[in-house]
């Protein structure tokens, strides 16, 4: 895999994480009475989706990237939900969103090759 293609893949994954985070923030702003209204999550969600779409149009995705990108989207959404519930305990427990986001984060790290064991040196 080329270095430029790896950069493009990371950019796609970061944009999908940001889109999940801003999407859940937009949903919380528009539907929850605990969260005060602000237009900025809506603008950020639109911009993240636009940038993600432009990235999709400009560069082809490697095999397995769409599944990892969707997982990053869910990590952002569940992560914001856990953060919001930690700030506002009257919304409920943050245990389930936190466990889901951590599980998905470990799966993404495994699929990206971050959790692989380094090669052990040979004994003399």
UniProtKB/TrEMBL annotation:
Highest taxon of source: Bacteria
Protein name, per record: Uncharacterized protein
Matching InterPro entries: DUF1422 (IPR009867)
Pfam families given in the database record: DUF1422 (PF07226)
Keywords, in A-Z order: Membrane, Transmembrane, Transmembrane helix
Transmembrane domains' residue ranges: 12-30, 36-53, 65-83, 95-114
NCBIfam families: PRK11056.1
Species name: Photobacterium profundum 3TCK
């Amino acid at each position: 895999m080329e270095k430029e293609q790896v950069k493009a893949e990371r950019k796609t994954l970061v944009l999908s994480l940001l889109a999940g985070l801003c999407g859940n923030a937009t949903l919380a702003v528009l539907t929850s009475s605990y969260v005060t209204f602000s237009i900025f999550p809506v603008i950020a969600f639109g911009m993240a989706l636009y940038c993600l779409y432009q990235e999709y149009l400009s560069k082809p995705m490697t095999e397995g990237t769409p599944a990892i990108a969707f997982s990053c989207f869910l990590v952002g959404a569940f992560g914001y939900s856990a953060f919001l519930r930690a700030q506002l305990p009257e919304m409920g427990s943050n245990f389930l969103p936190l466990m889901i986001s951590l599980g998905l984060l470990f799966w993404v790290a495994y699929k990206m090759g971050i959790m692989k064991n380094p090669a052990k040196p040979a004994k003399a």
